[in-house]
Amino acid sequence: MAVISAVHSVSSLHLQSHLQRLNNGEFFFSTRPRKMKVPLPCHHHHHPIYSSNAFGCSDRTSIIINSTSGSSTATSAVEGSLSEVEKIKQRFRTWHWKGQYSINYFVSSDSPQQLQANHPPLLLVHGFGASIPHWRRNIYILAQNYTVYAIDLLGFGASDKPPGFQYTMETWAQLILDFLNEVIQKPTVLIGNSVGSLACLIAASDSNQTLVRGIVLLNCAGGMNNKAIVDDWRIKLLLPLLWLIDFLLKQKGIASAIFERVKQRENLRNVLSSVYGNKESVDEELVEIIREPANAPGALDAFVSIVTGPPGPNPVVLMPNISLPVLLLWGDEDPFTPIDGPVGKYFSSLPSQQENVKLFLLEGVGHCPHDDRPDLVHEKLLPWLASL
Protein backbone atom coordinates (compact mmCIF):
# COMPACT_ATOMS: atom_id res chain seq x y z
CA MET A 1 0.00 0.00 0.00
CA ALA A 2 1.29 3.49 0.73
CA VAL A 3 4.19 2.20 2.79
CA ILE A 4 6.42 1.49 -0.17
CA SER A 5 6.31 5.10 -1.24
CA ALA A 6 8.17 5.93 1.95
CA VAL A 7 11.19 4.02 0.65
CA HIS A 8 11.66 6.78 -1.86
CA SER A 9 11.10 9.48 0.70
CA VAL A 10 13.72 8.04 3.03
CA SER A 11 16.21 7.53 0.23
CA SER A 12 15.75 11.13 -0.89
CA LEU A 13 13.56 13.09 1.50
CA HIS A 14 12.94 16.04 -0.79
CA LEU A 15 11.63 13.74 -3.54
CA GLN A 16 8.86 12.21 -1.43
CA SER A 17 5.80 14.03 -2.72
CA HIS A 18 7.26 14.31 -6.21
CA LEU A 19 7.85 10.58 -6.52
CA GLN A 20 4.47 9.67 -5.10
CA ARG A 21 2.74 11.68 -7.80
CA LEU A 22 4.91 10.50 -10.65
CA ASN A 23 4.47 6.81 -9.92
CA ASN A 24 2.03 5.12 -12.24
CA GLY A 25 2.59 1.55 -11.17
CA GLU A 26 3.01 0.52 -7.60
CA PHE A 27 5.49 -0.99 -5.19
CA PHE A 28 3.53 -3.45 -3.19
CA PHE A 29 3.61 -6.48 -0.92
CA SER A 30 3.19 -11.43 -2.20
CA THR A 31 6.75 -20.48 -9.44
CA ARG A 32 3.60 -21.79 -9.22
CA PRO A 33 3.67 -23.91 -6.10
CA ARG A 34 2.57 -27.52 -6.20
CA LYS A 35 -0.92 -27.97 -4.82
CA MET A 36 -1.19 -30.01 -1.67
CA LYS A 37 -4.44 -30.89 -0.01
CA VAL A 38 -4.54 -29.99 3.66
CA PRO A 39 -6.98 -31.67 6.07
CA LEU A 40 -9.95 -29.40 6.68
CA PRO A 41 -9.67 -29.37 10.49
CA CYS A 42 -6.62 -27.10 10.24
CA HIS A 43 -8.90 -24.42 8.80
CA HIS A 44 -10.52 -24.08 12.18
CA HIS A 45 -7.46 -23.08 14.16
CA HIS A 46 -7.51 -19.57 15.50
CA HIS A 47 -4.34 -17.63 14.92
CA PRO A 48 -2.13 -18.08 18.00
CA ILE A 49 -1.50 -14.35 18.31
CA TYR A 50 -5.17 -13.47 18.36
CA SER A 51 -6.76 -16.65 19.71
CA SER A 52 -10.11 -16.32 21.42
CA ASN A 53 -12.65 -18.71 22.88
CA ALA A 54 -15.49 -16.42 21.89
CA PHE A 55 -16.15 -18.12 18.58
CA GLY A 56 -16.73 -21.81 18.00
CA CYS A 57 -15.08 -23.69 15.14
CA SER A 58 -17.46 -26.58 14.55
CA ASP A 59 -18.83 -25.05 11.34
CA ARG A 60 -16.21 -24.21 8.71
CA THR A 61 -18.23 -21.35 7.23
CA SER A 62 -19.99 -20.02 10.29
CA ILE A 63 -18.59 -18.46 13.42
CA ILE A 64 -21.70 -16.82 14.80
CA ILE A 65 -22.51 -17.29 18.48
CA ASN A 66 -26.01 -18.35 19.39
CA SER A 67 -27.37 -15.16 20.93
CA THR A 68 -29.80 -17.11 23.12
CA SER A 69 -27.03 -18.62 25.21
CA GLY A 70 -25.78 -16.97 28.38
CA SER A 71 -22.14 -17.18 27.35
CA SER A 72 -22.84 -15.51 24.02
CA THR A 73 -24.70 -12.71 25.79
CA ALA A 74 -21.61 -12.04 27.86
CA THR A 75 -19.44 -12.19 24.77
CA SER A 76 -21.74 -9.76 22.97
CA ALA A 77 -21.35 -7.33 25.84
CA VAL A 78 -17.59 -7.61 25.58
CA GLU A 79 -17.73 -7.20 21.80
CA GLY A 80 -19.69 -4.01 22.22
CA SER A 81 -16.69 -2.40 23.86
CA LEU A 82 -14.20 -3.53 21.19
CA SER A 83 -13.14 -1.63 18.10
CA GLU A 84 -13.94 -3.09 14.67
CA VAL A 85 -10.29 -4.10 14.30
CA GLU A 86 -10.30 -5.95 17.62
CA LYS A 87 -13.52 -7.74 16.68
CA ILE A 88 -11.98 -8.81 13.39
CA LYS A 89 -8.82 -10.06 15.11
CA GLN A 90 -10.90 -12.20 17.47
CA ARG A 91 -12.15 -14.11 14.43
CA PHE A 92 -8.76 -14.81 12.90
CA ARG A 93 -8.11 -18.39 11.81
CA THR A 94 -5.10 -20.22 10.41
CA TRP A 95 -4.84 -22.23 7.20
CA HIS A 96 -1.66 -24.19 6.42
CA TRP A 97 -0.70 -23.62 2.81
CA LYS A 98 1.40 -26.27 1.05
CA GLY A 99 1.84 -27.94 4.42
CA GLN A 100 4.46 -25.40 5.54
CA TYR A 101 3.15 -21.81 5.57
CA SER A 102 0.66 -20.47 8.12
CA ILE A 103 -1.80 -18.15 6.41
CA ASN A 104 -4.00 -15.92 8.53
CA TYR A 105 -7.60 -15.48 7.40
CA PHE A 106 -11.00 -14.25 8.55
CA VAL A 107 -14.51 -15.50 7.84
CA SER A 108 -17.81 -13.96 8.82
CA SER A 109 -21.22 -15.53 8.24
CA ASP A 110 -23.51 -13.02 9.89
CA SER A 111 -26.07 -13.14 7.09
CA PRO A 112 -29.07 -15.51 7.20
CA GLN A 113 -28.40 -19.02 5.91
CA GLN A 114 -30.86 -18.55 3.03
CA LEU A 115 -28.97 -15.49 1.76
CA GLN A 116 -25.68 -17.32 2.09
CA ALA A 117 -27.04 -20.14 -0.05
CA ASN A 118 -28.24 -17.76 -2.77
CA HIS A 119 -25.24 -15.42 -2.85
CA PRO A 120 -21.62 -16.23 -3.71
CA PRO A 121 -19.03 -15.85 -0.95
CA LEU A 122 -16.61 -12.92 -1.15
CA LEU A 123 -12.83 -12.98 -0.70
CA LEU A 124 -11.14 -9.67 0.21
CA VAL A 125 -7.46 -9.31 -0.76
CA HIS A 126 -5.46 -6.37 0.63
CA GLY A 127 -2.71 -4.32 -1.00
CA PHE A 128 0.98 -3.85 -0.16
CA GLY A 129 1.75 -3.18 3.49
CA ALA A 130 -1.88 -3.77 4.46
CA SER A 131 -3.70 -6.75 5.98
CA ILE A 132 -7.17 -8.01 6.85
CA PRO A 133 -8.06 -5.12 9.22
CA HIS A 134 -7.69 -2.70 6.30
CA TRP A 135 -11.19 -3.93 5.36
CA ARG A 136 -12.58 -2.87 8.77
CA ARG A 137 -15.05 -0.44 7.21
CA ASN A 138 -16.41 -3.00 4.73
CA ILE A 139 -16.59 -6.44 6.31
CA TYR A 140 -19.74 -6.08 8.38
CA ILE A 141 -21.66 -4.22 5.68
CA LEU A 142 -20.92 -6.99 3.20
CA ALA A 143 -21.53 -9.73 5.78
CA GLN A 144 -25.19 -8.73 6.09
CA ASN A 145 -25.85 -10.58 2.83
CA TYR A 146 -22.71 -12.54 2.04
CA THR A 147 -20.24 -14.92 3.62
CA VAL A 148 -17.12 -12.76 3.73
CA TYR A 149 -13.59 -14.13 3.76
CA ALA A 150 -10.44 -12.03 4.00
CA ILE A 151 -6.86 -13.21 3.82
CA ASP A 152 -3.39 -12.00 4.79
CA LEU A 153 -1.17 -12.78 1.83
CA LEU A 154 2.12 -14.54 2.53
CA GLY A 155 4.53 -11.90 3.82
CA PHE A 156 1.83 -9.66 5.30
CA GLY A 157 -0.31 -9.22 8.36
CA ALA A 158 -0.25 -12.23 10.68
CA SER A 159 0.66 -14.68 7.90
CA ASP A 160 4.12 -16.25 7.73
CA LYS A 161 7.05 -14.21 6.46
CA PRO A 162 9.56 -16.97 5.63
CA PRO A 163 13.21 -15.85 5.64
CA GLY A 164 14.81 -15.61 2.23
CA PHE A 165 11.51 -16.15 0.39
CA GLN A 166 11.35 -14.68 -3.11
CA TYR A 167 7.92 -13.11 -3.48
CA THR A 168 6.21 -12.89 -6.86
CA MET A 169 2.77 -11.93 -8.09
CA GLU A 170 2.31 -15.50 -9.30
CA THR A 171 2.92 -16.78 -5.76
CA TRP A 172 0.04 -14.74 -4.37
CA ALA A 173 -2.24 -15.70 -7.25
CA GLN A 174 -1.61 -19.40 -6.60
CA LEU A 175 -2.20 -18.88 -2.89
CA ILE A 176 -5.60 -17.36 -3.72
CA LEU A 177 -6.52 -20.28 -6.01
CA ASP A 178 -5.50 -22.83 -3.40
CA PHE A 179 -7.49 -20.98 -0.73
CA LEU A 180 -10.58 -21.13 -2.95
CA ASN A 181 -10.00 -24.83 -3.54
CA GLU A 182 -9.23 -25.94 -0.02
CA VAL A 183 -11.08 -23.54 2.26
CA ILE A 184 -14.02 -21.78 0.54
CA GLN A 185 -14.82 -24.56 -1.95
CA LYS A 186 -17.49 -22.49 -3.73
CA PRO A 187 -17.50 -20.08 -6.70
CA THR A 188 -16.34 -16.83 -5.13
CA VAL A 189 -16.19 -13.13 -5.99
CA LEU A 190 -12.64 -11.82 -5.59
CA ILE A 191 -12.33 -8.24 -4.31
CA GLY A 192 -8.83 -6.77 -4.29
CA ASN A 193 -7.12 -3.44 -3.76
CA SER A 194 -4.02 -2.39 -5.67
CA VAL A 195 -1.51 -5.24 -5.82
CA GLY A 196 -4.22 -7.44 -4.29
CA SER A 197 -6.35 -6.61 -7.33
CA LEU A 198 -3.58 -7.72 -9.65
CA ALA A 199 -3.16 -10.97 -7.71
CA CYS A 200 -6.91 -11.60 -8.07
CA LEU A 201 -6.71 -10.84 -11.78
CA ILE A 202 -3.84 -13.28 -12.28
CA ALA A 203 -5.72 -15.96 -10.35
CA ALA A 204 -8.89 -15.43 -12.40
CA SER A 205 -6.94 -15.64 -15.66
CA ASP A 206 -5.77 -19.18 -14.84
CA SER A 207 -7.47 -21.38 -17.42
CA ASN A 208 -7.84 -24.20 -14.89
CA GLN A 209 -9.70 -22.19 -12.25
CA THR A 210 -13.41 -22.93 -11.78
CA LEU A 211 -14.09 -21.17 -8.48
CA VAL A 212 -13.96 -17.48 -9.43
CA ARG A 213 -17.45 -16.02 -9.92
CA GLY A 214 -16.47 -12.41 -10.57
CA ILE A 215 -13.76 -9.83 -9.87
CA VAL A 216 -13.80 -6.39 -8.24
CA LEU A 217 -10.67 -4.32 -8.80
CA LEU A 218 -10.09 -1.29 -6.57
CA ASN A 219 -7.38 0.86 -8.18
CA CYS A 220 -5.55 -2.11 -9.66
CA ALA A 221 -1.75 -1.98 -9.67
CA GLY A 222 0.16 -2.30 -12.91
CA GLY A 223 2.74 -4.58 -11.33
CA MET A 224 4.43 -5.56 -8.10
CA ASN A 225 6.61 -2.46 -8.44
CA ASN A 226 7.03 0.55 -10.70
CA LYS A 227 9.48 -1.15 -13.01
CA ALA A 228 6.42 -2.66 -14.71
CA ILE A 229 5.34 0.73 -16.07
CA VAL A 230 8.05 1.44 -18.62
CA ASP A 231 5.86 3.06 -21.29
CA ASP A 232 5.38 6.29 -19.32
CA TRP A 233 7.96 9.07 -19.73
CA ARG A 234 7.74 9.90 -16.03
CA ILE A 235 8.75 6.38 -15.02
CA LYS A 236 11.45 6.27 -17.69
CA LEU A 237 12.85 9.46 -16.19
CA LEU A 238 12.89 7.95 -12.71
CA LEU A 239 14.04 4.46 -13.72
CA PRO A 240 17.73 5.07 -12.89
CA LEU A 241 16.69 6.24 -9.42
CA LEU A 242 14.49 3.17 -8.97
CA TRP A 243 17.40 0.89 -9.86
CA LEU A 244 19.62 2.79 -7.43
CA ILE A 245 17.06 2.28 -4.67
CA ASP A 246 16.96 -1.43 -5.55
CA PHE A 247 20.74 -1.59 -5.18
CA LEU A 248 20.69 0.24 -1.84
CA LEU A 249 17.92 -1.98 -0.46
CA LYS A 250 19.99 -5.07 -1.21
CA GLN A 251 22.55 -3.81 1.29
CA LYS A 252 21.28 -5.23 4.59
CA GLY A 253 22.38 -2.34 6.79
CA ILE A 254 20.96 0.32 4.49
CA ALA A 255 17.70 -1.58 4.00
CA SER A 256 17.24 -1.96 7.75
CA ALA A 257 17.85 1.75 8.36
CA ILE A 258 15.38 2.74 5.63
CA PHE A 259 12.76 0.30 6.85
CA GLU A 260 13.04 1.54 10.44
CA ARG A 261 12.44 5.07 9.27
CA VAL A 262 9.54 4.02 7.06
CA LYS A 263 7.82 2.46 10.11
CA GLN A 264 7.86 5.64 12.17
CA ARG A 265 4.30 6.72 12.96
CA GLU A 266 4.65 10.24 11.63
CA ASN A 267 6.20 9.06 8.36
CA LEU A 268 3.43 6.52 7.89
CA ARG A 269 0.76 9.11 8.63
CA ASN A 270 2.27 11.56 6.14
CA VAL A 271 2.50 8.98 3.37
CA LEU A 272 -1.02 7.70 4.02
CA SER A 273 -2.39 11.24 3.98
CA SER A 274 -0.78 11.77 0.58
CA VAL A 275 -2.66 8.82 -0.97
CA TYR A 276 -6.06 9.24 0.74
CA GLY A 277 -8.55 11.75 -0.62
CA ASN A 278 -10.53 11.80 2.63
CA LYS A 279 -7.91 12.82 5.19
CA GLU A 280 -10.27 12.01 8.09
CA SER A 281 -9.91 8.33 7.20
CA VAL A 282 -6.22 8.48 8.10
CA ASP A 283 -6.65 7.84 11.81
CA GLU A 284 -4.41 6.30 14.45
CA GLU A 285 -6.07 2.93 13.92
CA LEU A 286 -5.05 2.94 10.25
CA VAL A 287 -1.47 3.87 11.10
CA GLU A 288 -1.33 0.97 13.55
CA ILE A 289 -2.86 -1.44 10.99
CA ILE A 290 0.10 -0.72 8.71
CA ARG A 291 2.74 -0.44 11.42
CA GLU A 292 2.05 -3.54 13.54
CA PRO A 293 2.83 -6.25 10.93
CA ALA A 294 5.91 -4.29 9.82
CA ASN A 295 7.46 -5.01 13.24
CA ALA A 296 7.16 -8.79 12.82
CA PRO A 297 10.22 -10.99 12.05
CA GLY A 298 10.63 -11.40 8.31
CA ALA A 299 8.82 -8.17 7.42
CA LEU A 300 12.02 -6.46 6.29
CA ASP A 301 12.97 -9.37 4.01
CA ALA A 302 9.50 -9.36 2.47
CA PHE A 303 9.66 -5.61 1.99
CA VAL A 304 13.00 -5.76 0.17
CA SER A 305 11.98 -8.78 -1.94
CA ILE A 306 8.85 -7.05 -3.22
CA VAL A 307 10.50 -3.72 -3.99
CA THR A 308 13.44 -5.30 -5.81
CA GLY A 309 11.68 -8.31 -7.36
CA PRO A 310 10.16 -8.82 -10.81
CA PRO A 311 7.02 -6.75 -11.48
CA GLY A 312 4.98 -9.74 -12.66
CA PRO A 313 2.27 -10.09 -15.35
CA ASN A 314 0.85 -6.92 -16.86
CA PRO A 315 -2.94 -6.39 -16.62
CA VAL A 316 -2.95 -5.35 -20.30
CA VAL A 317 -2.02 -8.94 -21.16
CA LEU A 318 -4.38 -10.51 -18.61
CA MET A 319 -7.67 -8.67 -19.16
CA PRO A 320 -8.45 -9.88 -22.71
CA ASN A 321 -8.57 -13.43 -21.30
CA ILE A 322 -11.15 -12.54 -18.64
CA SER A 323 -14.79 -13.26 -19.54
CA LEU A 324 -16.08 -13.15 -15.94
CA PRO A 325 -18.02 -10.12 -14.67
CA VAL A 326 -15.54 -7.38 -13.68
CA LEU A 327 -16.26 -4.26 -11.64
CA LEU A 328 -13.65 -1.48 -11.66
CA LEU A 329 -13.81 1.12 -8.89
CA TRP A 330 -11.20 3.84 -9.27
CA GLY A 331 -10.36 6.77 -6.99
CA ASP A 332 -9.71 9.82 -9.16
CA GLU A 333 -7.12 11.28 -6.76
CA ASP A 334 -4.83 8.24 -6.73
CA PRO A 335 -1.16 9.35 -7.02
CA PHE A 336 0.09 5.75 -7.48
CA THR A 337 -2.10 4.52 -10.33
CA PRO A 338 -3.72 7.75 -11.57
CA ILE A 339 -6.59 7.49 -13.98
CA ASP A 340 -4.59 9.49 -16.53
CA GLY A 341 -1.55 7.19 -16.27
CA PRO A 342 -0.94 4.13 -18.49
CA VAL A 343 -2.71 1.67 -16.16
CA GLY A 344 -5.65 3.99 -15.45
CA LYS A 345 -6.10 4.86 -19.13
CA TYR A 346 -6.09 1.20 -20.09
CA PHE A 347 -8.70 0.19 -17.53
CA SER A 348 -10.90 3.21 -18.32
CA SER A 349 -10.98 2.13 -21.98
CA LEU A 350 -12.18 -1.41 -21.20
CA PRO A 351 -15.96 -0.88 -20.73
CA SER A 352 -16.25 0.17 -24.38
CA GLN A 353 -14.32 -2.92 -25.47
CA GLN A 354 -15.55 -5.68 -23.13
CA GLU A 355 -19.22 -6.03 -22.17
CA ASN A 356 -18.31 -7.88 -18.97
CA VAL A 357 -16.49 -4.83 -17.55
CA LYS A 358 -18.07 -1.92 -15.64
CA LEU A 359 -16.15 1.11 -14.41
CA PHE A 360 -17.05 3.77 -11.85
CA LEU A 361 -14.77 6.72 -11.15
CA LEU A 362 -14.99 7.79 -7.51
CA GLU A 363 -14.52 11.53 -7.05
CA GLY A 364 -12.25 12.81 -4.30
CA VAL A 365 -10.98 9.30 -3.54
CA GLY A 366 -7.38 8.10 -3.40
CA HIS A 367 -5.59 4.80 -3.82
CA CYS A 368 -7.57 2.74 -1.26
CA PRO A 369 -11.25 3.50 -2.02
CA HIS A 370 -12.67 0.85 0.34
CA ASP A 371 -11.09 2.54 3.36
CA ASP A 372 -10.93 6.09 2.02
CA ARG A 373 -14.64 6.43 1.15
CA PRO A 374 -16.36 3.12 1.92
CA ASP A 375 -19.80 4.69 1.42
CA LEU A 376 -19.05 5.41 -2.25
CA VAL A 377 -17.64 1.92 -2.74
CA HIS A 378 -20.65 0.21 -1.17
CA GLU A 379 -23.00 2.36 -3.26
CA LYS A 380 -21.57 0.83 -6.45
CA LEU A 381 -20.45 -2.56 -5.16
CA LEU A 382 -23.64 -3.81 -3.51
CA PRO A 383 -25.93 -3.42 -6.58
CA TRP A 384 -23.27 -5.03 -8.78
CA LEU A 385 -23.00 -8.00 -6.42
CA ALA A 386 -26.78 -8.32 -6.31
CA SER A 387 -26.86 -8.47 -10.13
CA LEU A 388 -24.71 -11.62 -10.05
TrEMBL record:
UniProt-listed InterPro entries: AB_hydrolase_1, AB_hydrolase_fold
Occurrences of domain AB hydrolase-1 (ranges): 120-374
Listed transmembrane segments: none
Biological-process GO terms, alphabetical: chlorophyll metabolic process
One Gene Ontology term of the molecular function aspect: chlorophyllase activity
Gene3D superfamilies: alpha/beta hydrolase
Listed GO CC annotations: chloroplast
Name used for this protein in its record: AB hydrolase-1 domain-containing protein
Organism: Vigna angularis var. angularis
Gene name linked to the record: Vigan.08G148000
